[in-house]
Write a structure and sequence with these properties.
Helix content is about 75%, strand content about 5%. The protein contains 19 helices and 2 strands. α10 packs parallel to α13 and α12 runs antiparallel to α13. The model has no long low-confidence stretch (mean pLDDT about 90).
Length: about 475
Amino acid sequence: MSLMLLIPLVLPLVAAGLVVATGRYPNLRDSISVVAGFIVAATVVMIQQDFQPYSFTLAEPLPGISLAFRLDELGLIFMLVAGLLWPVTTLYAIGYMRGHGEAHQTSFFAWFAVAIGCTMAIALSANLFTLFLFYEALTLATWPLVVHARTDEARAGGRTYLSVLLITSIVFFLLAIIGTWFVAGTLEFTKGGVFPVDVNTTTASLLLVLFVFGIGKAAIMPFHRWLPAAMVAPTPVSALLHAVAVVKAGVFTLLKVCVMIFGEDLLSSLEVTELLMYVAAASILIASIIAMRQDNLKRRLAYSTVSQLNYVIMGALIATGPAFVGSALQIAMHAFGKITLFFCAGAILVAAHKSKVSELRGLGRTMPLTMVAFFIASLSIIGIPPTGGTWVKWYLLMGALEADAVIPMVVLMISSLLSVGYLLVIPARAFFSGDAAAGSIEAGPIKEAPWPMLLAICISTAGTVLLFFYAGPFLKLATLGVSP
């Protein structure tokens, strides 16, 4: 087991080095990225099939504070998401980068692999100290991807990305970790929480506020601006940010803090928990309304992500067993749905050279596979069968009912309707708008994106459907992971 856990931790870093070394040979370089991705994916699946809790310590820089890793159920969910989607995203990126004529491809694939390594380390972190180190490393590793184009616009987006994430981490997140150490005497993730039974509620409330706003990658408002700003990056980077690594690292961290630092009993006893839940609920609705007003397709999807991420936060703060399960499932279900949407956005840009929603009328005639995939992935984000997102809404509603939380139930229903408004309108325009409409695409021969991109789209789309019928492994891990 120790060897199997080292593969997802170390192999991405080895792959990054090999990518740099073979940069002059594009076919070999890209093959290394794909092979490394499939090895990691296979390893993570094997770990899931033979799951058993396991931990090891690399160093102890201070007494009681260690650089340590532990395999648990919640971490394994995150590992499965990152591991399964890395090779798919790499395959897509090869088609995109070549089809779009992107420069600096060696740098792109190298930093991409480093980011996956940091993501795996976050998933396996045994304590807040280890998690914080790799949480920050992930920010630094993805910054070169955000500014990949090296234009003034890219650099401006990169500054926003870096400043928001670093400021929230240093000012709030780090302070929350230090406060937890002084109050609880430990930073180890422990089911049921680490705080003593007689902990001062004011102190616990303050720490919870610091955690919620300090974990900036979770994109709760008003600390969400970094995410739309990062849309200046190439589409494969957007897919990485929104589905595989960065945002999922944020909500995973926050969920783990709620479940294994505070615990259900303490969370439900704090008055500030309900207030923060309302902030997350407001973020869901506000981001959805902003998404409806975005004509740029990637920005529309970015604000959709802000909304969908806050499902995890709201579920964690409802603080009931089913709501915790719904939040954990959202990490996986949203990943497959949203990465498909971004894959489709990139395919549209490469094949049709369109980036605005208003330009997509009639596109379904020339890119039918892409727009069908967009439609199916949209159903998953909305939560309509037969897609994996259905189970997220089910468990979040069950958790809200158990807590008698009326507002979250209303928010879930309204946000689903808003999602219909800003997502399903896109395939509807693509398939049913006439050629006479302003800005519509004339009917012509089918012209899809390059085959690696199309193959990746088909794989991720199939995943959104399969997760409806075969949600059992993720559901089992989620249930066990949030149980005291």
